[in-house]
Amino acid sequence: MTYTAPITEQRFVLETIADLPGLAQLQHFEAATADLVDAILEEAGKLSAGVFAPLNRIGDTEAAKLANGVVTLPAGVREAYAAYVEGGWMTLGADPAWGGQGLPFVLATAVQEQLTSANMALSLCPMLSQGAIEALTAHGSEDQKQTYLTKIISGEWTGTMNLTEPQAGTDVGALRTTATPAEDGTWRIKGSKIFITWGEHDVAENIIHLVLARTPGSPKGTKGISLFVVPKFLVNADGSLGARNDLRCVSIEHKLGIHSSPTCTMSYGDNDDCVGYIIGGENAGMRAMFTMMNHARINVGLQGVSIAERAYQHALAYAKERVQVRRIIEFADVRRMLMTMRGLTEAARALTYLNAAAVDRAHAETDERAGREAQALADLLTPVTKAFSTDVGVEVASLGVQIFGGMGFIEETGAAQHYRDARIAPIYEGTNGIQAMDLVGRKLPQGRWKSLFADMRADFALLTGETAGLAPYLEDALAALESATTWLAEGGAAGGADDNAAGATPYLRMFGLTIGGWLLAKQAATAAQRLAAGEGDPAFLNAKIVTARFFAEQFLPQAAALLGPITRGAEALFAIPEEAL
Amino acid sequence: MTYTAPITEQRFVLETIADLPGLAQLQHFEAATADLVDAILEEAGKLSAGVFAPLNRIGDTEAAKLANGVVTLPAGVREAYAAYVEGGWMTLGADPAWGGQGLPFVLATAVQEQLTSANMALSLCPMLSQGAIEALTAHGSEDQKQTYLTKIISGEWTGTMNLTEPQAGTDVGALRTTATPAEDGTWRIKGSKIFITWGEHDVAENIIHLVLARTPGSPKGTKGISLFVVPKFLVNADGSLGARNDLRCVSIEHKLGIHSSPTCTMSYGDNDDCVGYIIGGENAGMRAMFTMMNHARINVGLQGVSIAERAYQHALAYAKERVQVRRIIEFADVRRMLMTMRGLTEAARALTYLNAAAVDRAHAETDERAGREAQALADLLTPVTKAFSTDVGVEVASLGVQIFGGMGFIEETGAAQHYRDARIAPIYEGTNGIQAMDLVGRKLPQGRWKSLFADMRADFALLTGETAGLAPYLEDALAALESATTWLAEGGAAGGADDNAAGATPYLRMFGLTIGGWLLAKQAATAAQRLAAGEGDPAFLNAKIVTARFFAEQFLPQAAALLGPITRGAEALFAIPEEAL
């Protein structure tokens, strides 16, 4: 069950879809030279394959353990995280003003893809730190940045996000944790948080919790929420660690997957002495949280890509060696499963990288309008990246189990772990249903889909020669997507919001498949050009063309056929009274 | 996480789809009076809900354990099986000549559905016994029936199926276990078998293994395979238990799910003294195995129905109580998930019962032609029942996890167990890929689809009033199914067998969805008639009409859109050379 970082594929997508060379032309990212990008992908590939991947199964079987408030990770995890810190990997996309390298988020995304393929549970630790880095970078005070941000960017300390409470999951506004002002300008935090990923562990010397809480007299709901820095150990003026703060991990969850990612129930202020520092002022918590969540949603979408890639590599290796009459890779049905895995994985990767690159462009474009357009694209794509890619992760992992046959159901094989690990991604960071509602309810009204669809259509018109056959499939799918979008943008049928909500999930699927087909076709077109020019690896480039064709032929008709289901409205959904369900 | 047997639904499907009242008119099944059917469903519901269901989670967490060759089940399992035996449940569908009740297989199917919903791992024990019963009934000698069959039918002893060896899974013909004739007319068995469900346990006093092996000089491949009765304890002439036979369980698997179903590696003849008795003569093993497999495939399809039903009930209860702003069942997207679960589950149940009833009709019809037609229908539907329904099981269980949100990923909730348990059913008893190949390669050429499709079309023409709106969806799907069938029956395009194999899996899906839509429409039509006549429970009957509509609107367009993917041929599947995958 080895893992090899798919560097050729990643580089190709970074080039043709994310336009990383174009990003490197922007002053902000001028450090991202082709040589540096290559070196980073290679080195990260070594860390992933050599250090993270071998711990994946051990992490699954031994799991994180809690005893006396201390969470212990399986042997080797601490050393793996230390290797990550030593390589400076946390600094990749972070602000140079605070110790970061200021490289594009999309490059950090490619690195994170590898680490997550190698070991999803362990990769969550830096992923959560990245969320904390973004919130502190955008909303922290100079002092907070000096004290906390630099240490999280270096990787010496890790960060967490504390949103959920038992009664407040999707409904964040229902949270009850309180923050009371102390005389010295700090705050006292009191309350309980659940599902806190890497909330307690022994791999770094301090943990910086970002905690959502309510201040006295704050407005109800999400408007009255503030964000606090709550360190596990208080930090002295000289930066050294001081007293243990009044917070603790009271339990960890027994989960379906990602067993070596400790999912903690945290208790803050049991002794009324949990010190917190407000970030960005009172009642500004949701804004800061959204800063974190948008990146986090892309990163979770990426988990779908990563698990899919790992499951594909694993199943492919088995299909090549397993003999049933002949080697099973020679059977059309097994080949269909492999091509399905491959097509979905590559489509999800391209979408995710496009989305991450749009985030970069939004930050770095010097032309204001271009920056605004990029931000709008990033906003539009984020729910699709998150939901489509994580659904792909589950589907592909399930196909991986199937290729292994009876062996797939045996835990020692490892295919089952992918199937279990993958299942969390459609749930956390906003369920995929929430993403679909976000796409339909918030993102479509912003109108950015119009120029996106125009860009897609323009690309279809350029398909010639070997890739000309893709165009009819793409045009059909896009026509259906436009019809569905118009229907939704006009507020559905009679039922309005409920009708839109009723169609949101299949609409997101249609959106993801159509974008996926487009991005694979773009890659195929580039591949055909390079083949004609005698550039690049012919085997890789030919595979790009075939995969785009398989995807267009197999998945785009399904996408187009979702138009009816999307536009049927909510009536049938509510036609059976609750008690008769 | 309670379970309630869906008796109203089961009775309705038995009546409208399986035509159980019609079966009871046949002399063979005259015992199956309406009163008896009701009593059986009620009593089995009590056993399922009261005895089997409470052990489901304990069985998952404690699992079957092997020590010193003895497999121990978690506390309570032995008592649950004893209650099953005491109720005479194993006798339901068995031959009255050997202690059975001779009731229809479809009624036994409804009972088995309940037991499997309640506790899939435990339900496998009687399911395997049923396979042994069928093989012995059809192919055993009088003496074998007297000695073994009566005891398995009573439930005192259990049965197993021993096909798989490490190198021989899908490729049964590659098996190496040998049987050597002894002087007394018995045989000596030697070899190793893997994945033997309930191969060793402590819930019954004897285990009757049915073992495939090769006799000296037998032809290669599947033509040279014979079937043997190999009891754990030899049986004395007076029926009492004698010496322990030379066979043992050497290990049990650590699996993704069904943890309290011991999956054993069995070793036969370590001391060259494993006694076996041939069934049906030399080289007749595959025929006997097929007897077992056809019923077993329907029973495994049923597992998809059962897990889906359990996951639906579980998620529905949670959706009614869980509050996020408002109770989550009030959100359109949650309602969509519930309706999807409901529609798929009811479609798979109707298909499975139709299939089981066709088996009954094949046995019991006095008119020879009707019996032959019924057998051909059973043969045609079996791969669809097995593969479509088990895919449904996985999909519905996954949606169940999703409805639970973060709690769904926590093992204590139980939703994750359904997701894990469900995953084996698409694999064992012939992978779903094998089923698709069976459908396309063996069943379509038999031609029975022609009259089936004609019957479907005739039913569509009868849809009027409230159900008239279903007809266009059904007609579109059936038209596509006919086109695909014609294409496949004509041997695909240029590629012939490989082209057919390439389209087999989406074809089976299209077949399952279209049949499912038809059977739900039939039920809706009956429901509408009863509502008009003022008969029956209006809430239940209305729900039937709504579910049929939801299914037609949401799933049938997807079925129709598979025509293109099915008929694309194998070229793209093999266009990437293996080393470039």
UniProtKB/TrEMBL annotation, chains A, B:
It is an enzyme of class 1 (oxidoreductase). One of its GO terms (molecular function) is oxidoreductase activity. Residues 453-576 form the Acetyl-CoA dehydrogenase-like C-terminal domain. Coiled coil: none annotated. Belongs to the acyl-CoA dehydrogenase family. Keywords: FAD, Flavoprotein, Oxidoreductase. This is Acyl-CoA dehydrogenase. It comes from Sphingosinicella xenopeptidilytica.
